[in-house]
Write a structure and sequence with these properties.
This protein has 966 residues and is mostly beta strands. It is 1% helix and 51% strand. The chain has nine domains: 10-86, no CATH class; 90-170, Carboxypeptidase-like, regulatory domain (Immunoglobulin-like, Sandwich); 174-266, Immunoglobulin-like (Sandwich); 271-357, Sandwich (Immunoglobulin-like); 361-440, Sandwich (Immunoglobulin-like); 445-536, Carboxypeptidase-like, regulatory domain (Immunoglobulin-like); 540-614, Immunoglobulin-like; 698-892, Carboxypeptidase-like, regulatory domain (Immunoglobulin-like, Sandwich); and more.
């Protein structure tokens, strides 16, 4: 029962609206209850004179032409007049497509709304592939589309009051897996459960809606061993996991391209490993578990955690897939050990005998908050190296905040403390054996709030939210916190951000149809913050049409992006509308079949209508080959600017269209969402011509990476083609990435003859050199032994000899200096994959100005040093025959230059967040704090420019500034 109360808030279709101002109120016509006063307004507070109010008992019904009807109940004792707000209905039009073609015979429904029962029902009409949903109340709607032979789709739409929206709903062709399970002896295996794996990297390339749909998909084999799982989307890569008690789990990689895929799968019984764990005196070690690694056993990531060793110290591992294993043992209080070469056969027990352990070192300490109070239950993680592998030991603090991590190897240990409500604290190099370590955790902050329309105060139910720590003189850029959602969907427009580092933040909110809102300097305190209200304003708009340049036919489904707003799509007539603009904007149009087009400095006041012509461009197609030389299905191929990547089918084929003429970089990964099997290439594109490129074809480079005679397990090796050998005008790529196996072995495919920058990352080291792949050699072996070769020294002020904070790099000169080189870093889960066409050793000096650079081999090196406020007259040329620690780099103070940038026409100050200044051959760059201060420059003529990341902006005038000697 809804009651009318003083200071009335009227709830309409699930939205809370403020009471209206009583000034100049108009009484609406009242049927059947004369004398009752009812005031009816629209969402902007304007009177609705044509409203008709019908009251029967405690039920009120209100209607007016052009508005959604409203009904509700009230208490006879409620204050008068009753204030009621009517809303304009919205309309959602669109069509259902598959692969760009209209789809017939589908069903379209709206999910149950989180609105009161009195909300008027929406009107749905369907004709062929087109649909229209009318009488929609503002809010969040979820559309559900189903069609025979297709994967069902759920898509949320944020509806604004009175708008007419176009939306295209694309269904993907469906498939089902029909698997027959056997026990390894051709006997049917009933009771095997099958599901799509959604953990770790297997889910990284799936959208959130698809993960939600697949999470409830489970099937089991019948008496004949038959299992049916689906629907699965054709063209997507899935990892299907099959489990049954008593046998090791197996997985199947599947990229379906037909309505049904049949497979016969064996689940062998597996084998067992047995080890006896004892201390150095021969006493059994109970309660210890193991971690397994293998280069040839399948699906070891599906193995459950091992059961702990018993009182007799016997540890039994199984059932395991057949293969050769490395067993990592880490008993509490003992130094870890790795037992390699453990062979497992189906149906057999492999006894590895006794494994003896030496006592390990320990680190102890206390976790406290910033007020000095102990933190109980904090998670302590210690990471250290043993036998070429990084191991982890996890502990918890006690009631007094104390912790003790035992069983550590000699050397540096990374200690990290985490606790709910606190920022994580990390100490990167704590010597094993340290006692009394104190970790101080800062309480986390939070931000909560609500996003509403500025004019109507109606909630904005779908929006993107960007958050960045407020910049100051000590920061050089924006570093958004990780782990926070960027897209919010909430019926009341609410958001909540927890676990923030206390401080001030800038919030940026974007929503379809509204101006981008920036709220600066919001305080996120450790004790929480007051709820925020972010109001989004409507702005200028641009109407337009996208046509084919060849025949001026409308281009449907093109994506229109602007500088600050969320993208929109073109309708069947190629039309679109961009709303919420604040002024001039960059407009960029993409479509899978056409060349992307960008238009800079579009002014909605002077150019309210756009006609955009798209050309077809060229295309490229080819085959992706796997490590076995066979076509690889489920690999991902894309270009750097592609909206969507292409996934190869069972024949390994891919085709990309709508590409611009000229040299173009292509990228391939074997597993979408990761950099497994990463490879790039440059292809020449011509209009109207289909170019060809096959991945995985070329020379094979293989070998073993070792250190001190032991395998460098899991070392990462990257190869980047040197810039001088790439086609003119090409993107600076031509790279491969591979991770070594447990035995240090690696193998790459698809290398073309030429010179590459080789970079090996292992145990925190980055070691590189240039290597040449000869022509005419289909297979090339290169074993790499990582030496303990170092170049160490210190960086000091040339006048005072005080130590300096500086960045130091060293690059090899033995094969000549390149005229150009490039570096790039890519994220691969928790790892960062680095490529370099001229690998450099890098380090940052410590508080004493000291640095230490790992090198791959003896030779001549070029050493470059950068320190804020200082300049290096010229790079050093250093000869390294053996490890040396005698290098001293003296840096002279540089010139400091403060610059104020203003608009050359208006004289208005500009916020130049990133710019560069050059004086002769020197260049200084200032990014992030907008302070306009540049250092490391010599005296000379000054030239200024905006950073190239500001496209379409003219170079600003430099106002009268100042320079000073430092």
């Amino acid at each position: 029962m809804r009651r009318w109360l003083p200071g009335l808030l009227v709830v309409i279709t699930g939205l809370v609206l403020p009471s209206l101002s009583p000034s100049q109120e108009q009484k609406a016509a009242v049927a059947s209850r004369p004398g009752d006063e009812v005031l009816v307004r629209d969402s902007l507070g304007r009177s609705i004179l044509a409203a008709v109010v019908h009251i029967e008992g405690s039920v009120v019904q209100v209607s007016a032409p052009g508005f959604l009807p409203w009904s509700g109940t009230f208490s006879p004792t409620a204050d008068k007049p009753l204030r009621i707000v009517l809303l304009h209905p919205a309309t959602l039009r669109g069509r259902v497509i598959s692969k760009g073609t209209g789809l017939h015979g589908y069903s379209l429904k709206l999910s149950p709304k989180q609105a009161p029962a009195n909300a008027p029902p929406a009107k749905i009409s369907v004709k062929d592939e087109y649909f229209e949903i009318g009488s929609l109340a503002p809010g969040l709607e979820t559309l559900k589309v189903e069609a025979e032979g297709f994967v069902p789709l759920e898509q949320s739409e944020s509806i604004r009051e009175g708008e007419i929206r176009w939306a295209e709903l694309e269904l993907r062709a469906g498939s089902r897996l029909v698997a027959t399970l056997f026990d390894g002896k051709k006997n049917p295996l009933p009771g095997v459960e099958g599901r799509v794996r959604l953990e770790g990297a297997d889910a990284r390339f799936l959208e959130a809606a698809e993960i939600k749909r697949l999470s409830g998909m489970l099937s089991a084999s019948d008496k004949s061993g038959r299992l049916v799982l689906g629907p699965l989307a054709q063209g997507s890569r899935y990892r299907i996991v099959l489990r049954i008690e008593g046998r090791p789990a197996r997985s199947l990689l599947l990229t379906p391209s037909t309505p049904s895929v049949a497979r016969e799968i064996n689940l062998p019984a597996g084998g067992t490993l047995r080890l006896t764990l004892k201390d150095k005196d021969g006493h059994p070690i109970p309660g210890s578990t193991a971690r397994l690694d293998s280069d040839d056993a399948p699906d070891i990531d599906l193995l459950p955690e091992s059961r702990p060793s018993g009182k007799d110290g016997i540890l039994t591992l199984g059932p395991l897939p057949a293969g050769t294993y490395s067993v990592r043992l880490q008993p509490e209080g003992f130094r870890p050990r790795t037992v390699r070469g453990c062979a497992v056969r189906d149906g057999a027990v492999s006894d590895q005998g006794e494994v003896r352990f030496d006592p390990g070192l320990e680190i102890s300490g206390t976790a406290k908050d910033d007020a000095g109070a102990p933190i109980a239950g904090a998670a302590i993680r210690a990471r250290f190296y043993e036998s070429g592998r990084r191991l982890t030991a996890n502990r918890k603090t006690d009631r007094e905040g104390k912790f003790r991590v035992a069983g550590l190897s000699p050397g540096p240990v990374e200690i990290q403390a985490e606790a709910k409500g606190y920022q994580a604290e990390k100490e990167e190099e704590v010597p094993a054996g340290t006692a009394g370590l104190e970790l101080e955790l800062t309480r986390s902050g939070s931000l909560v709030g609500r996003v509403v329309a500025a004019d109507t105060r109606l909630p904005v139910t779908a929006f993107s939210l960007g958050i960045n720590k407020e910049r100051d003189d000590s920061t050089s850029g924006w570093y958004p916190p990780r782990g926070f959602p960027t897209i919010f969907e909430d019926a009341d427009g609410r958001f909540s951000l927890e676990g923030l580092q206390p401080g001030r933040y800038d919030l940026m909110v974007r929503a379809r149809g509204y101006k981008t809102a920036l709220m600066e300097g919001v305080e996120a305190g450790s004790s929480g913050s007051e709820p925020l209200e972010i109001r989004l304003e409507t702005g200028l708009h641009i109407d337009g049409v996208v046509l084919s340049a060849e025949d001026r036919a409308p281009v449907s489904g093109a994506i229109i992006r602007t500088s600050d707003l969320l993208p929109v799509e073109t309708d069947p007539e190629g039309k679109f509308q961009i709303e919420g603009l604040t002024g001039k904007t960059l407009v960029r149009v993409t479509h899978p079949l056409y060349v992307a087009k960008a238009m800079g400095e579009v002014d909605p006041e002077r150019t309210p209508h756009l006609e955009i012509l798209l050309g077809r461009g060229g295309a490229v197609e080819g085959i992706v080959y796997g490590e076995n030389g066979e076509p690889a299905s489920g690999a991902e191929v894309r270009v750097s600017f592609a909206e969507r990547p292409i996934t190869t089918g069972p024949d390994g084929h891919y085709r990309l269209e709508g590409l611009p003429a000229g040299p173009l970089a292509l990228f391939k990964v074997d597993v979408p969402g990761t950099y497994e099997g990463f490879e790039s290439a440059v292809v020449q594109i011509e209009p109207g011509v289909v170019a060809s490129h096959d991945f995985g074809r070329g020379a094979v480079l293989h070998g073993v990476i070792t250190h001190a005679g032991a395998p460098a397990s899991s070392a990462r090796l990257t190869l980047a083609r040197i810039a001088s050998e790439l086609p003119e005008g090409a993107h600076t790529h031509g790279s491969l990435s591979v991770r070594c196996g447990e035995d240090g072995s690696y193998e790459t495919h698809g290398l073309q003859p030429g010179t590459y920058g080789l970079l090996v990352t292992w145990e925190g080291r980055k070691l590189g050199k240039l290597v040449a792949i000869p022509e005419g050699e289909p297979e090339w072996r290169m074993d790499i032994d990582l030496p303990d070769l170092w170049l160490s020294g210190e960086v000091v002020d040339a006048e005072t000899h005080h130590p300096l904070q500086a960045h130091v790099t060293a690059s090899p000169m033995s094969q000549g200096q390149q005229s150009a080189s490039y570096n790039s870093t890519m994220n691969d889960g928790d790892d960062r994959v680095e490529f370099s066409s001229n690998p450099q050793a890098r380090d940052q000096t410590d508080s004493q100005g000291r640095f230490r650079l790992p090198l791959m081999e003896p030779g001549n090196y070029r050493v470059v040093v950068f320190a804020t406020g200082y300049r290096q007259e010229q790079p050093l040329e250093v000869e390294v025959k053996a490890s040396r620690s005698d290098l001293v780099v003296d840096l002279a103070p540089a010139i400091g230059l403060s610059v104020k940038a203003v608009d050359a026409v208006t004289g208005k100050a500009l916020d130049v967040s990133c710019a560069s200044v050059s004086m002769g051959s020197d260049r200084g760059t200032n990014c992030g704090n907008g302070a306009g201060r540049f250092t490391s420059l010599r005296p000379g003529a000054v030239k200024g420019s905006r950073h190239p990341h500001d496209p379409g902006r003219k170079t600003p005038a430099l106002a009268a500034g100042r320079h000073e000697e430092r």
